[in-house]
Task: structure prediction
Amino acid sequence: MNKKISRRHLVRGSLATAAMACAGLSYEHRELAAQLVDRSNYKRIQEPVKGLQKAQFGDRMVSRLIIGGNLISGSAHGGDLLYQSALMTRYFSTEKILETWEIAEQNGINTTLMRADPHIVEHYQKYLKERGGSLQWIAQTQRFHCQVNHGSLLPV
Result:
């Protein structure tokens, strides 16, 4: 089908398409703005979660929900978004880290799984001393690359 399109028709169609795209983006932004979290109750003390289950882990009772440390350490796993680690470490100031652990404990989480780097050790000790926290810590101490050799894992 060899149908010729005039320049005027092409420009009119392009402008109409651009206008519809802008209207669509505007609609999307309105929808996203309408779904933003209401922050009026932020910092207001809320009733903690009751009845969080625990399980036996060796000689310890561990909450079945464990708080991790990736974001506190800046390990955001954002792929090509290289700024995410810096953003996370700026957001998680000392005060925010201690507050996060305190809220976790208030809601029945009694264990964290974090790597044992100087940043975490410093904040964990500060949390125990200054906030009287009792959060148990499963510490990741070293990264191993393992291979399977006759059914057992060996560090490489």
Remarks:
- The mean pLDDT is 79.
- The chain is about 45% helix and 20% strand.
- Residues 54-147 form one domain.
